[in-house]
Amino acid sequence: MAFFHLTHSYKIACQVIKLxxxxxxxxxxxxxxxxxxxxxxxxxxxxxxxxxQSQPENKICMDCSQKNPQWASISYGVFMCLxxxxxxxxxxxxxxxxxxxxxxxxxxxxxxxxxLGENERVNQFILQYGIPEETNIVTKYNTNAASVYRDRIQxxxxxxxxxxxxxxxxxxxxxxxxxxxxxINLRWVVGEREEW
Length: 196
What we know:
It is a single chain. The protein is mainly α. The chain has two domains: 2-35, no CATH class; 43-177, Arf GTPase activating protein (Annexin V, domain 1), CATH 1.10.220. It has helices at 2-16, 27-35, 43-54, 82-91, 108-116, 119-128, 137-140, 144-157, 174-190; strands at residues 71-73, 78-80, 98-100. Helix 1 packs across helix 2 (27-35), helix 3 runs parallel beside helix 5 and helix 5 (108-116) crosses helix 8. The relative contact order is 0.09.
C-alpha cells in the first residue's frame, strides 16, 4: 500500500514539474531530491558521520574529555559534549558552527569539513601556537591559531590549495582580561557609570 502511494505521488510529481517521462531514479530518490532538497544527509552520509565519531580521538569531547560526544563544531571538524557545545554556540556561528550528531541534518560540505578536522589534529595544530589544550573555550577559539584552522578547513573544503602560514606563538592573557572585568564591575558598583 505504501509503495502504491509513493508511486502515485511520483507520477503526480512528474506531471506537476512538466516531465514527459519520469527520470531514471527510483520514485523515493526522485521525490526526496525534488521536494526535500534541504534534507541532505543520506544513509551513506549518516554512516560517514558515525565512522568519524567512532575514531578513537573523536570518542571524547574536544574540550573537556567527556566520553561519547554527541555534538560537533563544523567550523573545526571536531566532536564535543552537550555542555561544551553550548559554550561554542555562545561564541557565535562565525567562530563555531555547532550541530547535533543525531538530531540535525548534514550537508555534503559539512561532512567534508568533519572529515578534514579531527579532535586530536585540532589540538596539535593549536598547540603549535602555544595554546595549551586546557585553555578555556572562549579564549582558545578566539585566538589566531583557531582562526587559521577555520580558514584551513574552509579552503580545503572548497578545493583550494592551502599553505599553513608561519607559526607565531601566542600568549594567553586571561588573567589580564579577568582584572579588567573586575575593574569594570567595581566601577559599576561604586557608581561610576562611564561609557565604555
